[in-house]
Design a protein that fits this description.
The structure is a single chain. It is built from 15 helices and nine strands. It is of the alpha/beta class. It has one domain: TIM Barrel (Alpha-Beta Barrel). The strands form two sheets. A seven-stranded parallel sheet has the order 1-4-5-6-7-8-9. It has a two-stranded antiparallel ribbon with strand order 2-3. The chain is globular and about 55 Å long. The structure holds coproporphyrinogen III. Coproporphyrinogen III (CP3) binds next to strand 3.
């Protein structure tokens, strides 16, 4: 297992609330269209081609590490990949995002989902993990990830991105047995997938429950938390730090913490000190600069970075990040400036 980086990585230390040489920083969607070197690869390959070609996916994973000096790499893949071997027909349509042509709409669709042998069906992703690990130094861990069962279920049911998740929530309310069966199947596949990532060399895991904030606390507790908890309970035995992330989760922070994870991701709508007070001293936090702050003039941006660090406080257990992913038009030099400033101010 990944023991080498444990002593030297600021990110792994912070995730365990141990003392750090400086506050670690990485960015969700740090690989992506704001980087010219990523766009150069994307001109010749689709997103799914990159994910299916370990050589390309490893290269794209490493681009932001070289360019930005971040404290972690995140595997280049997508949360929707495990749906493909389950039998869903996934495409990324330019300008529209993900589209699933045969979404899950009822009990028969759930019953027809295929069991997945992740080592076989997701072999290219696992090979990417192995390749990236060989090219990273001990200070820079590789973060593996998956979508949380709820967020992945939303795409499987809606068939794409959604604003109000009407189709997914209707299924949850109208056919709870079908919903629960879908969530059970996702817990199995996602758990197998994340365990295989760690086996291949991932040193931390992030579970993206990006759209959990669309739920009331009561619905989150009834329809989602039990499955996230089952997944986290299984992942705990892997021995790597677990990050639990969602957007607009101000009303769910305690429930998400209780569902699992060593580190709780916080978005910019909640001041980090208030979030820390609610999450408590037994968890680390990750966040929470507004991704749009990266578009601000540097002086203003620096003030916002200082504010996040001040609110994070002096206690161990803060991983600097955005509250959500880097946006496509973000100025690269501003992203780099944030990394340098976080390191400088916390060294
Ligand atoms: O650098 C990284 O963060 C690693 C790679 C990564 C991607 N997707 C590649 C990608 C990660 C961690 C994800 C997670 C992901 N995918 C999430 C959770 C994070 C979040 O943003 O909330 C979600 C909801 C998805 C599903 C998804 N993938 C959507 C909705 C889209 C289209 C919208 C968009 O941003 O274009 C994607 C496409 C996608 N996945 C891109 C990348 C880099 C877009 C770039 C491209 O088309 O080349």
């Amino acid at each position: 297992m990944a023991v080498t980086a444990v002593e030297t990585s600021a990110l792994l230390a912070a995730a365990r609330r141990q003392p750090v040489p400086h506050t670690p920083v990485w960015f969700m969607r740090q690989a992506g269209r704001y980087l010219p070197e990523y766009r150069a690869v994307r001109e010749r390959h689709t997103l799914l081609e990159i994910c299916a070609t370990p050589e390309l996916a490893a290269e794209v994973t490493l681009q932001p590490v070289r360019r930005l000096g971040v404290d972690a790499a995140i595997l280049f893949a997508d949360i929707l990949l495990p749906l493909v071997p389950m039998g869903l027909d996934l495409a990324f349509v330019n300008g529209e995002g993900p589209v699933i042509r045969n979404p899950v709409r009822g009990a028969a669709d759930v019953a027809h989902l295929a069991p997945v042998d992740v080592r076989d069906a997701l072999a290219p992703v696992l090979e990417t993990v192995r390749r990236v690990r060989r090219q990273l130094d001990d200070d820079t861990p590789l973060i593996g990830f998956a979508g949380a069962p709820f967020t992945v279920a939303c795409y499987a049911i809606e068939g794409g991105s959604s604003r109000h998740f009407v189709t997914a929530k209707r299924l949850m309310y109208e056919a709870p047995a079908t919903w629960h069966e879908l969530m059970r199947r996702l817990v199995t596949v996602l758990g197998d997938y994340l365990a295989a990532q760690v086996e291949a060399g991932a040193q931390a895991l992030q579970l993206f429950d990006s759209w959990a904030g669309a739920l009331s606390p009561d619905d989150y507790s009834r329809y989602v938390a039990p499955y996230s908890r089952q997944l986290f309970d299984r992942l705990r035995s892997l021995g790597v730090p677990l990050i639990h992330f969602g957007v607009e989760t101000g009303s769910l922070l305690e429930l998400m913490r209780d569902a699992g994870g060593d580190v709780i991701g916080v978005d910019w709508r909640i001041p980090l000190d208030a979030a820390r007070a609610r999450i408590g001293v037994h968890h680390a936090v990750q966040g929470n600069l507004d991704p749009v702050a990266l578009f601000a003039p540097l002086a203003e941006l620096r003030g916002k970075v200082r504010d996040v660090l001040r609110r994070a406080g002096d206690d161990a257990g803060h991983i600097f990040n955005l509250g959500h992913g880097v946006l496509p038009a973000t100025p690269v030099d501003h992203v780099r400036a944030v990394v340098d400033l976080v390191h400088e101010l916390t060294a």
